Structures are given as C-alpha cells and as structure tokens.
What does this fold into?
Amino acid sequence: MKKFILSFGLFAMLAAAFCADSPDAKQPDSSASAPLTEEIKGEVKERLDIQKQPPSIELDSKEIVDSGTTRTDEVLQQAKPIPSDADFEHYANLNSNQVLQPWNPLIPEPPLVTFYPGLSQVASKKWEFRVSDQGGDIVTVISGKGVPPKEIQWDGKNDKGQYIRVGTIYSYQFVTIDEHGNAQTFPGEPFQVDALKYKSHGKIFVEFAQDSLFTKDLATFQDTMKGLWARAIDVIRENSNKPLTVEVYSDSVKSNLAEERRQTLIKSISDATNIPSVDVHHSVEKLTDRGNIIRLVMQNR
It folds into this structure.
C-alpha cells in the first residue's frame, strides 16, 4: 500500500514538472475560484440569407391555348344582333315646321323644310336626309355620321344650287345605317310648294305655279290662293323702292291666256299698291326649267 501511494505521488510530480516546462502551457490565474470567461471582438464579414422555397406550380400550356381558342370561336360564331323596329320608333315620327297649306298666308321661303329626327335607342353610324321629286329623281342629299342632329334644315336647293320648282310634288326620306350595316328608311309626307319666295344675286323673287294661282284655262284667281297672293302684294309694298317686273311664262309668247293673266296681275298690283301700271315692267316669256309659273322680280336700283 505504501508503495502504491508513493508511486502515484511520484507520477504526479513528474507530470507537473513536464507541463511547467512546456512553452504552450498557460499560467493558472491567481484566483482559482473565478469562472473561466472569454470575450470575442470584431465585425461580421458575411451575411447569411435565408430564403423560402418557392411554391411549385404546374401549368398545362395545351389546356390554356385550347381554352382561349374555344372562347374566341364562340364569340366569332355568335350572330350579330339585328335591331328591332321598336329601337327605331322615334325616327318614325317625322315632322316638318312648314307643312304647306293653301290657306296659309305666309309664302314659303328658305329654310324650306326643317326635319326633327328625334332620338333612337340605336346609335347610327351614318344617316342621310334625301329629297326626291315626283318623278323619283333625287333632288338633294344631306348626310352625316354618328348621332343625327336635333334638327336638319333644307334650304330648298337641289344639288346644282337651284331652288325647287313650284307646283311640283316632293317627298323626303330619312335613312339611318347602324354599326352592323343595317339600313332603316323612314318616309316623310309628300309636299308641294305652290309659291316660293327667295333671294338671289341681289334680287327678290316670288314665284307662283299658274295651275295653283289661276282657275284652269281662266285668268281669275282661285279662292284658295287669294291669301298667298295678298301676301305677295305685301312683299311688293315692303320693297316699293325697288323696280318691279312681272313675268308670265307660257308655251307660246303669243298665248292669249298668258296675255290675259298678265293683265290680271298688273291690275291687281296697281289697285292694291297705287303703283301706276306704266311703272310696272311686264312680259310674257317662253317656258324655262322653272316650269309653268308667274314670277315677280324686285331688284335694287
């Protein structure tokens, strides 16, 4: 037992001496009971990024293409909607502010017709206002795009700039064309102008259809036209400072009926205005494109 204790003690002494002689050996702290601590100073040179794993999405390109193509085919195969008559019911109410009546004392003058198309439930791509004569020939066309205006005025001139003829029946139509190319036509009431007053080249013209103003084959005024003729006398009074010319048109300048009607006109004007008949220029003229008319012309001096 003593030998074992002695040997262990000797071993311990040798081990202590060996550690003391080692250059890497650390000297023990004077305070053996203090806990062992170590402080590390410095800056972090690298950053650790932590990313979440993106979710996985599975796409079938064939399914996407087929689906879009199917919807496109469905749209292309759909029939274009055709508006019903009810959609255009407002256009059917055609009216004019100058529906001419024989007993109306006012002589028609431009604008000859004012058309009020009204509003429709269908937007028009373009529209046309057409005027035709009694032979079916187009006299004039007024057109536009989009929604028609609230009123359309026509001055009574044809496409050549000439005023329409008195005593001739005219008709007008309003045509709308929608975005699908469908046309809707709305006819207006036919009208006839028995007298017309207009200005051109500094002159005032008043024209009457002879068949309307005079009794057939006679030189006497028709009762239904006396109001319009009285208004023509008023126009002469309003322009009494202008030279007056009375023109009677006929198939023949030597027509007895034309001469009798000329005399009737001169006497009526002289009696109503106190203008001496010798101061009224007058003539019987050969028919022109204005038709079978009598014309009063007042011009500036």
About this structure: The chain has a mean pLDDT of 76.
